[in-house]
Amino acid sequence: MSEEERQIEYIDRLLVFKLDEKTNETIPKLVVLNDIIFFSTDDIDGNRIWAITDKDDKYLIRSSLKELSSLPGFYKTDRSYVVNWSQAKGYDPKWNQLIFKTSAKKANVGGSYFKALKPKILALPKL
Fold first, then answer.
1. Which of 17, 77, 83, 94 has the smallest set of CB atoms within 10 Å of its CB?
2. CATH for 3-122, options being 2.40.50.1020, 3.40.50.150, 2.70.98.70, 3.30.565.10
């Protein structure tokens, strides 16, 4: 395999870290981008960014939400969420949340982000 083929092979993967809550150590892992449903932060400062996968696994990631929103097919929907649009199944207008194909988890859609993504959101079924 040539070096160029090797680079192409890994472009669809992202380095993430599984957090061992007992020891507080992180274990590196490559995850396929299409397996990621969304990225989110659970603190107000955005210091901890999590990648949530289609198996509901949760991984730490060492990038900002702004950087992650520049990945192909990923869109920022709220100050705390960047969503993999290919994983979106529908939209709940009552709660302003995206619903996903492979997970019961939901992602918020903030007002200003709704305006920017309106055509994409309105193309989704209302659930």
1. 94
2. 2.40.50.1020
Residue 73 has pLDDT above 70, yes or no: yes
- Per-residue confidence at 44, pLDDT binned at 50, 70, 90? confident
Residue closest to 38 by CA, chosen among 104, 92, 94, 95 = 104
Q: What is the DSSP string of the chain?
A: --HHHHHHHHTTEEEEEEEETTTTEEEEEEEEGGGEEEEEE-STT--SEEEEETT--EEEESS-HHHHTTSTTEEEEETTEEEEGGGEEEEETTTTEEEESS-S-EEE--HHHHHHHHHHHHTSPB-
Q: What is the pLDDT of residue 108?
A: 96
